[in-house]
């Protein structure tokens, strides 16, 4: 049996669905839908040189890779890759072939340092280290049972604070872009992010097919978005927090917790059965917030990095 690596066929719905299926089996804590996969492929900034690759064995997609350059950063040459193989199709060479193809793609576009996330299992970590990657920080996947669990009670916002949804900013989402840019710059990360391209943000983030504007809650103070929690849903009962953050001038007032609680309550009322989020293991404020909601760890991933010669 021969394994080959090729580009994802964006015009072949069955191919995209197979990509999503492998990703879901390998990493069920993230929302993978064909539309979201196509959105990344078709709308990523040209400077990212984004690519989606598949490993195929006898006509079956058994492995996937997403590859890009970090373009909105002050340090050039930083490449990002994620490789996931069907859990029932490992040890067939698909992972190694995908890594090699991804590295070749990134090196051809000027990458000198590569970052990847690896599931925290002995086999996955050994695979990364065999390919020359060294271990870095870690992050947890968290799950909350919305159908059978208990959420903290809703509390009215304090004086001067109003809760709105992202849908309320449909005519002018720029204030949300500005809040997103500020909070993202403070997120724990190996690659610093500088959101400066509003038009690209509109295309990539605001138009993202998983973004649920009705369930995204924004805490507004004196007309200015001060904190928010960004909700992704697959419209089939699964909800994921894509971002929760507070502008620097408003931190320490519980606004992020207020926004997230409102969003989770409305998500449950809308029929969402389970909620997912991620937490860098060094982000103590968000660890405390998610523990307060009752999230439980359901997986861990580890950051690995490799310098190219």
Considering the chains and any ligands shown, give keywords for the structure.
Aminopeptidase, 2 domains, alpha+beta, globular, 31% strand, 12 strands, 12-stranded mixed beta sheet
Give the percentage of residues in beta strands.
25-35%
| CATH architecture title of the largest domain | 3-Layer(aba) Sandwich
Coarse structural class: alpha+beta
**What share of the residues lie within helices?**
25-40%
Integer-rounded radius of gyration: 20 Å
What is this structure's SSE topology?
Blueprint: E1 3-7, H1 13-26, H2 34-43, E2 51-57, E3 60-69, E4 78-85, H3 94-108, E5 113-119, H4 122-130, E6 134-145, E7 161-165, H5 174-185, H6 198-206, E8 217-221, E9 224-233, E10 238-246, H7 255-269, E11 274-280, H8 284-293, E12 296-307
Parallel strand pairs: 4-5, 10-11
Antiparallel strand pairs: 1-2, 2-3, 3-4, 5-12, 6-11, 6-12, 7-8, 8-9, 9-10
Structure in words:
The chain is α+β, with helices and mostly antiparallel strands. The chain contains 8 helices and 12 strands. It has 2 domains: 3-111, 3-Layer(aba) Sandwich (Aminopeptidase), CATH 3.40.630.30; 144-300, 3-Layer(aba) Sandwich (Aminopeptidase). It is 30% helix and 31% strand. A 12-stranded mixed β-sheet has the order 1-2-3-4-5-12-6-11-10-9-8-7, sandwiched between helices. A hairpin with a 2-residue loop joins strand 2 (51-57) and strand 3 (60-69).
């Amino acid at each position: 049996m021969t394994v080959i690596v090729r580009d994802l066929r964006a015009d072949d719905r069955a191919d995209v669905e197979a990509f999503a299926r492998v990703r879901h089996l390998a990493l069920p804590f993230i929302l993978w839908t064909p539309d979201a996969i196509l959105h990344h492929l078709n709308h990523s900034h040209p400077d990212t040189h984004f690519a989606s690759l598949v490993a195929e064995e006898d006509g079956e997609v058994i492995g996937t890779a997403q590859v890009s350059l970090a373009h909105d950063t002050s340090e050039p040459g930083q490449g990002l890759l994620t490789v996931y193989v069907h859990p029932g199709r490992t040890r067939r060479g698909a992972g190694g072939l995908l890594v090699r193809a991804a590295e070749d793609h990134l090196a051809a576009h000027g990458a000198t340092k590569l970052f990847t996330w690896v599931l925290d299992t002995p086999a996955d970590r050994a695979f990364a280290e065999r390919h020359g990657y060294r271990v870095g920080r870690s992050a947890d996947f968290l799950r909350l049972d919305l159908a059978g669990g208990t959420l903290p009670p809703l509390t009215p916002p304090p004086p001067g604070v109003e809760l709105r949804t992202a849908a309320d900013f449909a005519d002018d989402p720029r204030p949300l872009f500005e809040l997103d840019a500020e909070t993202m710059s403070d997120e724990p990360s190996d690659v610093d992010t500088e959101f400066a391209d509003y038009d690209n943000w509109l295309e990539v983030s605001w138009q993202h097919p998983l973004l649920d504007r009705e369930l995204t809650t924004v805490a507004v103070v004196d007309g200015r978005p001060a904190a928010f929690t960004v909700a992704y849903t697959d419209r089939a009962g699964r909800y994921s927090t894509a971002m929760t953050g507070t502008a620097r001038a408003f931190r320490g007032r519980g606004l992020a917790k207020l926004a997230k609680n409102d969003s989770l309550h409305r998500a449950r009322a809308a029929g969402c059965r389970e909620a997912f989020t991620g937490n860098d293991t060094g982000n103590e404020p968000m660890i405390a917030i998610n523990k307060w909601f009752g999230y439980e760890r359901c997986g861990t991933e580890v950051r690995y990095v490799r310098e190219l010669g």
